[in-house]
Amino acid sequence: MLNDLRGVRVLVVDDNSTNREILSHLLGAWGMRTDNAVDGVEALRLLNAGRQSGDPYTIALLDGVMPGMSGPDLALAIRNESQLRDTKLMLLTSVTFRGDQYQKARQAGVTVHLHKPVRKAQLQKYLRKLLKDVDSGRPSVRRNSLAVLQRLRFPDARVLLVEDNLVNQEVASTMLTQAGCKVDIAGNGQEAIDRLGQHAYDVVLMDCQMP
């Protein structure tokens, strides 16, 4: 039931240590990979570091009211950085935004705004909604999973990648090569069978949906 959340990287941004601990524990229990930031400055640093490492944060949970940079201010700052604007944002707050803060949240494209205390089922529901939005706007290769592979090293492992989508082939092949693998590509099932008859592979990665 929670497979769609496992491995997803999430940044929790909250100046309250208790809130950070509770959210991190809950998200971790669902198999999500979490890091914490105490304010907007640290959040932007971690988000940029994640992007540069090839393992970006898919979702950021932002406390609405923080000293210095509020949740809407941070959301707008994230949207204004080209490398971070794909990050899905969720605001968690005990107040109702009005006026300038409300406009900033709208301008930043925040689609999920939950009031504290957040119920577990409600949080899980909207995390899934954000992930569905992510998957509908990118190739079918799960980049969170590939990012994990990219951080690992498999020196000289021979991998057969079975995938009919050219974009997915390029993304997966590049990341696997960076992980130290030797990659062959098959564009369909018959081609994969032919290659398996010709070579011994350590791993076969297959797309579940091919013509």
> From N to C, what is the helix and strand string?
EHEHEHEHEHHEHEHE
CATH topology name of the largest domain: Rossmann fold
How many DSSP H or I helices?
Answer: 8
Radius of gyration: 20 Å
Shape assignment: elongated
Assigned CATH architecture of the largest domain = 3-Layer(aba) Sandwich
pLDDT average, as an integer? 82
* Number of extended strands: 8
- Structural class determined from secondary elements: alpha/beta
**Largest sheet report:** 5 strands, parallel
> What is the terminal-to-terminal distance?
27 Å
Walk me through this protein's architecture:
The strands form two sheets. A five-stranded parallel β-sheet has the order 2-1-3-4-5, sandwiched between helices. Strands 7-6-8 form a three-stranded parallel β-sheet. The chain folds into two domains: 128 residues, Rossmann fold; 55 residues, 3-Layer(aba) Sandwich (Rossmann fold), CATH 3.40.50. It starts with 8 loop residues before the first strand and ends in a 5-residue tail after the last strand. Helix 3 links the parallel strand 3 and strand 4. It has eight helices and eight strands; from the N terminus they run E-H-E-H-E-H-E-H-E-H-H-E-H-E-H-E. The radius of gyration is 20 Å and the shape is elongated. The chain is α/β, with parallel strands linked by helices and 211 residues long.
Write the layout of secondary structure elements.
Elements: E1 9-13, H1 17-29, E2 33-37, H2 40-53, E3 59-63, H3 71-79, E4 88-93, H4 99-107, E5 112-115, H5 120-136, H6 143-151, E6 158-162, H7 166-178, E7 182-186, H8 189-198, E8 203-206
Helix pairs in contact: 3-4, 6-7
